[in-house]
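Table S7 (text form). Paired inputs.
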Amino acid sequence: MPDRRSILLLPLLAAACAGRPEPVPLPSGPLGYKYLSPLPLNVTGIDIAEEAPSPVPGDVGARLTPSAPEAVRIMARDRLIATGTTGQARFTVSQAQVIQSQDALTCLLGCRLEILSGLGSRVGFAEAAVTRSVSGPEAKRPNAPEALLRRAMDDLNVEFEFQLRRALKDWISPIASDADGGMAAPGPGQVGVEDLAPGSAPRRETLP
């Protein structure tokens, strides 16, 4: 039989549990973009730099799984493929922080893709950057940093593809259909329809 002290503590414990915020739901499975069509580059290889941006005060991005810099590199590994016979591409993470302050969380992500000629000179580049934040009670919920990074990565994925097609359209090569009749990359003037995230509405755009 519980003693009188334990009985008196039960309402306090129940109140504490009731006031605990619910964790922010996270997507199931690891972060990845292989469900999307690849972005084929007319180069012989793609170098994805392992260097991470310098940390800033309040940055918790390095403690996440995956870390903020690694999340950006995962996007590059999953989306970019080399299909050419000359030249090289180099992908770098220019910004990757999840900054935690007293009442807010801010995620800053950025990347850069350079195209190098066979002699090593830069012949083109594309850059993409996004910012997303939450504040107040939402910023203090369990899983809030991880959820914010996931949402910001979806933003960066969309922005990166847009900037790549805009700035490096001459370096995007078509993908021929495979022996089983797989879908080829849309040609000039065709409209591509693609889900950018599981469960999201399709995005339609006229491709160069």
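Next pair, protein 2 of 2.
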Amino acid sequence: MNPGHMEFCAGEEWRQLVQDVILPVALNGIDLGAAVIEIGPGPGFTTDVLKGLTASLTAVEIDPGLARALADRLRGGNVDVVLGDATALDMPAATFTGAASFHMLHHIGTVDDQQRALSELARVLQPGGVLVAADAGYSDGSRLFHEGDTYNPIEPDSLAPRLAEVGFTSVEVREYDLGWVCLARAV
């Protein structure tokens, strides 16, 4: 991420949006179960909420500094922070009851890599396990905000076929003020 983007995503304004808007919309009525995986937690604002909704949370972060800081901050609790790549999860199949990704899929550089990450989530979810994801489609403002970053937005109308392709069913996509939320079940 560019420095301004990183500063925003680690700041109080983003924390408030995550806790007061994004997660209440995304998680309304959703039970992720007892063992959840989150990809791309960044500074961990989403992790802070998710850890209270499950017995065990595994947060997979690709950035070594962010992973280390999050692991240090959450040491001793129910969160296992793993330094790893969502496109190649080093975990057994059918491990988790739920999976989460919040406003990070657009940071995966190619559609093929996004598909690999989604496929990996389908693989590590137990049959019937739920995926909840939120992000946003393209906007000029977001493109400018991501200058010098990876910016590969996913349009909401493409989600159902893309998720079906990698092993999800019962896909629901809702749009809201900050983008889209989708729910899907692993086959």
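The radius of gyration is 15 Å.
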